[in-house]
Amino acid sequence: MHTTTGGKTPRLISPEQAAALVRPGHWLDYTTGFNQPDVFDRALAARVGELHDVNIRNCLSMRPRAVIEADPDSSIFRVFNWHFSGYDRKQHDAGRVSYIPCNLGEIPDYYRRFIDRVDIAVMKAAPMDADGYFNLGPICIWHPAVIERATVLVLEIAPQMPPVVGPQVRVHRSHVDYLIEGEDAPMPELPNTEASDVDRAVARLIANEVEDGACLQVGIGGMPNAVTTLLLHSGVKDLGIHTEMLNDGLVELYRAGRVSGARKATDRGLVTYSFSLGCRATYDTLRDNDDFMCRPVEDTNLPDIIARNDRVVAINNTTQVDLQGQAASESDGHRHISGTGGQLQFVRGAYASRGGKSFICLASTYERRGVRKSRIMPALTPGNIVTTPRSDMMYVVTEYGIVNLKGKSVPERAKALIGLAHPDFRDELEREARERGIIPRSLF
């Protein structure tokens, strides 16, 4: 368990002194996103010739990690990741990062029940306030559980970290062992990709299903973002937000006055989220804003908590769906792409919500090496990870339509999903479905 320094102010040390705390065999926690340390990371990387067997847990790296760049063979630093960013994916492809399977909302429980050691936790925070607290910014996620378990807690002070509102986003100085001065640099931003015609077509179908007073969860990606843009220009109002990730589109809905949270059962009147990634305008909106509530993922992602709100609308991406209705959202065969994240938990929470709807969306095709292929397949690509099982699948959406798979038999599902595929692939999908017995020859 983490030790404290009583009522004393934690000791200010240099990044090099902080890195000198690391010993062979240690387990470090770099936490997540823009809370990952930078000056500490570089100082630790400089010790590459002195150390061995150093283990680091992290998630969603927003910048290159110096410990990885300094040790391309991973002979010194072993990195384990809860969810990949684009950078993490490339490092995994090179054999330098390993994925930890998880439901994101369960991770705090993993730290408390199953993870043996956190020798040193290092994370960014805003400068100490007048009451002796450091604010972790808009990314609470599982940080409180990490802090509970850490033997040593080091905070890297980030002057531009926006303080936010939440019951566990602040850390009192008595729980901090060391401080290091970080860079006075802007927080990393997540660029929004321009919505494609396919994204907008899918978004229109989903937006038509969103009613006044719905409670939104939106995942990462162009399609979910396109939905929020359409809602911005629709007449829908009185929305609530209860989400894992808070993106620019949801914050734009708030700024436009479409979000009241008045019909929510949890955090009524507030926007509930666990972390935010987006542009600077989003971070500025969150700064000390009492309309937003940043909570750990066990308070945002667990299905029973999600389901307390009525009319939950969960909107998430996938990369492949088979004719049974299984969604593979995190891998391309044996190549890992991202992570389970909160998708399955929000699918289940939305279904259990009174009047709730879960949407899994995808483009009907993709192109690889100049060849167009279908994302709806008779069977998943060998090695692909099932993120949402067929038994949990509710609405599936492509640019060609929307179907609800709940209550449908296997052959009914197959026929419905074939109807969502690109017309160029429908005949082949139907033929393979009949050859494999997914659609018996006596039916349809």
Mean pLDDT: 95
H/I helix tally: 14
Quaternary structure: single chain
Largest sheet: 8 strands, parallel
Helicity, in percent? 25-40%
Low-confidence stretches: none
Distance between the termini: 62 Å
* Overall 3D form: globular
Radius of gyration: 23 Å
Structural class designation: alpha/beta
Layout of helices and strands:
Elements: E1 11-12, H1 15-19, E2 27-32, H2 39-45, E3 54-59, H3 66-69, E4 77-81, H4 86-93, E5 97-99, H5 107-113, E6 118-125, E7 133-135, H6 143-149, E8 150-157, E9 170-172, E10 178-181, H7 197-207, E11 215-218, H8 222-232, E12 240-241, E13 245-246, H9 248-255, E14 271-273, E15 275-276, H10 280-286, E16 292-294, H11 303-306, E17 312-317, E18 320-322, E19 327-328, E20 331-332, E21 335-336, H12 343-352, E22 357-361, E23 365-368, E24 371-374, E25 376-377, E26 395-398, E27 401-404, H13 410-418, H14 423-435
Helix pairs in contact: 5-6, 7-8, 8-9
